[in-house]
Amino acid sequence: MNDLGCIEFSGKYQDNLHDEINNYSIVAGVVARQQEFDIIHAHDWLTYPAGIHAKTISGKPLCIHVHATDFDRSRGNVNPTVYAIEKDGMDHADCIMCVSELTRQTVINHYYQDPKKCFTVHNAVYPLRQELQDIPRPDHTDKEKVVTFLGRLTMQKGPEYFVEAASLVLHRTRNVRFCMAGNGDMMDAMIYLAAQRGIADRFHFPGFMRGKEVYECLKDSDVYVMPSVSEPFGISPLEAMQCGTPSIISKQSGCAEILDNCIKVDYWDIHALADAMYSICHNPSLFSYLQTEGKREVDQITWEKVGLWIRELYDRTLGIK
Q1: What is the mean pLDDT of residues 249-261?
Q2: In what order do the strands lie in the sheet with 145-150?
Q3: Rounded to two decimals, what is the model's pTM?
Q4: Whole-angstrom distance, CA of residue 173 vs CA of residue 87
Q5: Residue 296 and residue 298: Cα distance in Å, rounded?
């Protein structure tokens, strides 16, 4: 508390995350008593207790937005405390919005929710700001190609499959470099794996990127790869396709439900992944097609359309429709 009696939040995970969750819940109760509103919208498990508290006090309906579940984050090795918070939020929710049909089925089958209150609300992307549009794309014709993984280096994201597929590509050609951007608890293991496979001279680990750096990296790439083991949605391929970078995504990702102009493989099929990488790098017609059609497709996936769908779900929850 500060001198004005307000609880201060850092916006970061605290040493005791559950204390922070409890603080949010206390504040939600205060807000629910003081403010007039029609509906409560809580995003992911960290805010579910706050949403439940606000609903209990106000009697207003609760919508929750499921961006991921602990089944996604843990490859099935679920934290029982997190699971209990997630399920409690879902049990109290009047409407459950899921970022993909993949996530919706997880909510129905693993959290035992009524399908009638569960809805798929796919994510979208914002149009590129002018400063990002102005970032040049290097011409790699007759030069080394660049294949990029950009994301958290955790087991959910499948970084080891990227390295293994890269090794297969480099058995066929040495004219490709691989960029593994990001950090996470598997960073050291991936550096070691690249060295084990004898491809360290073709691998780059630039670390965590933010803001404009992300788009510079994407535009400098000939292929973007997201080999996620379990990805509720996955916005990064949409961002890559916005930049004119052909993308390869795992069939186990939510964005695979709405993207057509990319290559989809099973995350575990490193041979199919390697074939896709090699083909885009060495077939100019395929590269050009995915570049042009991918950008055209993603430019039609807008947050305005998502907002209209969410507004309709609000109206249904409130009994207006």
Answers
A1: 96
A2: 203-207, 176-181, 145-150, 223-226, 247-250, 263-265
A3: 0.89
A4: 49
A5: 6
